[in-house]
Structures are given as C-alpha cells and as structure tokens.
Specification:
With 385 residues, the chain is α+β, with helices and mostly antiparallel strands. The protein is built from 13 helices and ten strands. The strands form two sheets. Strands 1, 3, 4, 5, 6, 8, 9 and 10 form an eight-stranded mixed β-sheet that branches. It has a two-stranded antiparallel sheet with strand order 2-7. Strand 5 (146-148) and strand 6 (151-153) form a beta hairpin. 48% of the residues are buried.
Length: 385
C-alpha cells in the first residue's frame, strides 16, 4: 500500500499546484525501499484478501536485513537500499520525511520524531471520516511518550541487545538519521484488517487476567512452533531462499518467550520494563501482537515447506491447522474486518498531507534552506528549492 499511497500523493500534488507553491516544496517519491521483500510478498498482493492467504504468503526480512534499521550505525550500513536512502537524506536534508507502513491487523496510528501541534486532531478527523479505527495503544509504542490519541513520539536511539532492538526499536534508524538536519520523520501506519477494540480507551475490569491469558497463549504457541521448527530445520535445503525465510523465523522464536514473560503479571524479572497503565485498547493490541508473532512464524514455516514441494517432516497439516485456527481467532475473536485498499490508501495519503501542511508551516531550525523530505514504503523525501 505504501507504493499505491505514493502514486496517490503524486496525483493530488499535481492536481493542486497551489499546495506546493505556498510551501515552495518539491516532493520526492520513493515507491519501494525493499524490492526484494516486496517480491517475496507477491503471492497475496493480488488477492483474494483473506487472512489465511495473507499469512501463508507473508514475508518480512529478518531484523538485520530490514533497510530502515541501522543496528551498527549509519557508517557501517551495508544494504544497498539503506545506503541509497541515507545518501538521499544527506543530499536533500528534508524538512519532512514520511515512512509509509501497513498494519496487517489493528488500527491506524503515527509515530513522529518531533511534535507537530494539531496533527493528532487531523489524524482523528481523517480516521473518523473514512471509518478507520485508531490504535490507541500500539504494541510498537508501548513505552513511548504519547503526543495525542494514536500519535506517539519516537525516542532517540540507544544501545541494547538484539532482542530489545527487535521489540523496542532501540537502535539507530533511517527515521532518525536526518534528525541532525531538523527533519521531522512521520511513520504513518494504516491497517489492512481493522479491529474496533484497539480504540477502546476504557479502563479494563481485570487487566491482569487478560495479560495472563495473552502471555500464556504466546508462550504455548511459541513452544509449539519451536518444536515444529526443530523437526523441520534439518530437512530444509541449504539455499539462500531458505536462509532468507528462516531469518525472521529465528527472530520471532528468539523474542517470543521474553515477551510472554514481560506481559505475564505473575513473572517479574530484574531487567524487565514495567508495563505502563493499560487500557482496553492496549490489551486488545497485545492480544493481536502475540497472535501476529505466532501467525507470521507459522506462515513462514508453511512457505518453507510448500515451496520445497515436499514435506519429509510431516509438518504441513499441523501448520495449516494452526494458521486456520489463529486466523479464525482474528476474525471471530477480535472482529478483524477487511478495509478496501482504496480506503487504506486514501487514509494514509490524507494523514501524510496533514503532516506536510503542518511541517511546512514550521520548518525546523536545522533544515537547510527549509528543505523537506518524506517517504513511501520507507521514505519519500521532498525539499524546498
């Protein structure tokens, strides 16, 4: 959807030249930051859009091969996609960069490196007009400051181990790289399947009971998937494609037990972050996040077996059963409902234009001649002439 949003934005900018004359702006559109990852998702992109089809054809690179992350710093970045984006940021020194993301199940929200006063109200208006649920307690932002409903402040990067980096985005990133130029980065998340409960900000009657259920489910599911992976691993061909699919599986298997312990109110560890006060929306999001980790792992394992054309470990029937069961929980237990692509794109493009309107009125002090930038899939920069 990021690429479709970029094209929609180009249409809107060309159709209304006064918008950019007032801001003296040039838009630079990056249709896709990760073409290899996009190609590996082609199996579900044309539909039919069902949860089962999506997760059986899902791909996301392992953490170390996601172009937006800089776990070893910008100077040591090796992915060509990352180097191209960093060079573009250094050349343009944009005042705004928008990174366009899709949420598979949940609601819409945004993450900013600087406050944009008025932005939460604009996002709320757009979401209400288009019937998009706002995610008021995203798992991604569980420990981050809130700038307004469904709008969160990205904290500065800090050093941490790999598990913390994967779960807390605690490393350097292309979101923060242009911060030195005064760039505002807006990460705009738009959902494919919406869940109404993610915008329920009421106080739950028994949060601890829900957390126990969610953490125990994740712990059970991750152990089950780890056993299936052990049965399967030595049967897999030693190919580059196998390594690409196994990398995110190993990431998920690594982080799931720790997350389950973090969410369990009966387990307290010395290095754990205490959970913030939780709303019903937070609990719904944690349930979705735990199920997402299990489904992504099962889907990637399914791809490994189905793609090889043989199942010597006999795991495919069990993986099919688990995927169907967990997708049914999303659909029937969480009330996940498909949002048409055109509406997803309209929501995301309107939120980007709101960020542009606000950022163009208040260029940051570090911006070179008021340059601006913004992104699609991972970054679409623009700059003032």
């Amino acid at each position: 959807m990021g690429g479709a949003t970029a094209l929609r934005l180009a249409e809107r900018v060309l159709a209304d030249p006064r918008r950019d004359e007032d801001a003296d702006a040039t838009w630079n559109l990056l249709l896709c930051l990760d073409p290899d990852g996009l190609r590996r998702n082609e199996g579900w992109l044309q539909g039919p859009y069902t949860l089962g089809r999506y997760f059986r054809n899902f791909f996301r690179p392992g953490f170390l091969e996601q172009p937006e992350w800089l776990p070893d710093g910008a100077d040591r970045a090796t992915l060509p996609e990352t180097r191209a984006l960093l060079d573009l940021q250094d050349e343009l020194r944009p005042f705004l960069q928008c990174s366009l993301h899709g949420v598979d199940v949940g609601g819409g929200f945004a993450e900013l490196t600087h406050d944009l006063p008025g932005f939460p109200r604009r996002l709320a208006h757009t979401a209400a007009r288009l019937g998009i649920p706002r995610e008021l307690g995203p798992y991604d932002t569980l420990y981050w400051p809130r700038l307004g409903p469904a709008v969160y402040l990205i904290p500065p990067p800090r050093r941490g181990d790999l598990a913390a980096a994967i779960t807390e985005a605690a490393v350097e990133s292309t979101w923060f790289h242009p911060y030195r130029y005064g760039t505002v980065t807006a990460v705009v998340e738009a959902p494919m399947w919406g869940v109404a409960a993610v915008e329920d900000d009421t106080i739950p009657a028994d949060a601890a009971a829900v957390l126990r259920t969610v953490s125990r489910a994740l712990r059970h599911d991750s152990r089950l998937l780890a056993r299936l992976l052990t049965r399967l691993r030595h049967h897999l061909p030693a190919t580059q494609e196998t390594a690409r699919l196994l990398a995110p599986v190993d990431d998920y298997v690594l982080v799931c037990p720790g997350l389950a312990d973090t969410w369990d109110p009966d387990i307290v560890t010395a290095d754990a972050h205490p959970l913030p006060p939780l709303s019903t929306a937070h609990l719904a999001t944690l349930r979705i996040a735990g199920r997402r980790l299990a489904l992504r792992t099962a889907g990637l394992l399914h791809r490994l077996v189905a793609g090889s054309g043989r199942d010597p470990a006999g795991v495919l029937p069990e993986l099919d059963r688990l995927i169907d069961l967990w997708c049914a929980d999303y659909r029937d237990g969480c009330g996940a409902r498909w949002i048409p692509v055109a509406r997803q794109v309209e929501y995301q493009s309107r939120v980007v234009l709101a960020a542009f309107d606000l950022a163009s009125r208040h260029p940051r002090a570090g911006s070179r001649s008021g340059e601006q930038g913004w992104g699609s899939e991972a970054a679409v920069p623009m700059h003032r002439e």
